[in-house]
Amino acid sequence: MSDLDFALAEGAPPVLRVTTESPRQWVSKHRERLRAAVDEHGAVLVRGLGIRDAAQAAGVSRALAAELLPEREGFAPRDGHGDRVYSSSKWPRDQPMCMHHELSYAMEFPGLMILSCLRAPSSGGVTALADARAVLRDLPGDLVARFEREGWQLLRSYNPLVGVAWTEAFGTTDRAEVERYCSDNHIRFQWTADGGLRTRQRRPAVVTHPVTGERCWFNQIAFLNEWTMEASVREFLKSEFGPDSLPFTTLFGDGEPLDEEIVEQINDVYDRHTLREPWQDGDLMVVDNVRTAHNREPYTGDRQVVVAMGDPIRLDKCDVSRIWEAEL
């Protein structure tokens, strides 16, 4: 148990109010107790640190995490703020980013998400949270059983017009390096005649937390599915690129498409377990990326949130069957 005095309110994550002129020094001093609070609650919000710029955010992130990850396979552009510290994903401010676990489609993903708010938006823009254990418990049993049996598939068509180009997603212009990465990470790939890249990967939808042993709903099945897009956006992308070349979509593990009702079911369960606390300038949020899903709500104004991904976890440490190696 942490001896930091977190305020607990219904419908909100734990909030700790502090006063300090040195964010990194405070975090370094209280690191173990802060990490213990994340273990206990799944996420915490520290208010009053006064993080003013990306350099301070980077210092706080490195004080908290044992190791920071570079992003690979990102689905939306980010700006870099020094080594392994990034802007939040560039996503239309009037459209939500639905609940997900960061890089849950990758073979290595962050165990810890560290978010620093340099400037809060005029309205909206909350990074809301949801307990993945509770979501798993409340999803329909037959749906969970199928996803546990089959996993899920992510299909991507990289192009420079929507989302990120493959050169940005993989951090290289060398096709051979991309092919090695894909082979090493159980990703099927195909180069297209116009220089684009299509990929397909199969991943588990439910994992066991590597520390607590708790089962968690851990994926991006709903967020990256075409039915989560606004109808006008979905139809435009289909007409522009074709129904089989969307920038991304998700399927059942056996390749069967998901229907709109299933995607709505998943998002509805997330909604029932959502915790929200509006950002304030200088806030720090620390999230257990396996136990806790996060989103980003629509907003107005100038929202600046800096993100670091810490404490890498390999998928095979999460007690899952090796369905990602199965034939697609």
TrEMBL record:
InterPro entries linked to this entry: AlphaKG_dependent_hydroxylases, TauD-like_sf, TauD/TfdA-like
Domain TauD/TfdA-like, which positions? 17-307
Question: Where on the tree of life does the source sit, at the highest rank?
Answer: Bacteria
Q: Which Pfam families match?
A: TauD
One of the record's GO molecular function terms:
oxidoreductase activity
Entry keyword set: Antibiotic biosynthesis, Iron, Oxidoreductase
Extract the SUPFAM superfamilies matched here: Clavaminate synthase-like
Q: Which cofactor does it need?
A: Fe(2+)
GO BP annotations, alphabetical order: antibiotic biosynthetic process
Which PANTHER family does this one have?
GAMMA-BUTYROBETAINE HYDROXYLASE-RELATED (PTHR10696), TAUD_TFDA-LIKE DOMAIN-CONTAINING PROTEIN (PTHR10696:SF56)
Query: What protein does this entry describe?
Result: SyrP protein
Q: Organism source for this protein?
A: Streptosporangium carneum
